[in-house]
Amino acid sequence: MQKTKLAINWIEDKQPTQQGMYFTAQRYPTGFGVYDVAAWNGEQWQLDASINVVGWIAFDDFLKNLDINWPVSDQKADEDFKARYDANKEDFKPDGFVEVE
After folding, report:
1. pLDDT the model gives residue 15
2. CA nearest 26: which of 39, 40, 36, 41?
3. Could you tell me the superkingdom of the organism this chain comes from (predicted)?
4. Given 16, 34, 37, 79, which residue has the most CB atoms within 10 angstroms?
């Protein structure tokens, strides 16, 4: 797999204002650092207290920067859904909501 360089505009030195999942840069007391997804509950990171979040970005903003192909082994599900949709177009709601049973 080829590596792709992705520039992240990290938010640093302040905490998120909304609860949610965030892509984070974390520093451990040992000095090692990792990238990981972490939850913010509105007051604190849901991580061990010894882990320092040194930068973060909203997870949905992170994903907007990616164009990742879907696993080939699961693409049959898309084909099955499209076949059901094409066969029943008139039953689908005009607002775009689709309920699958």
Report:
1. 96
2. 36
3. Bacteria
4. 16
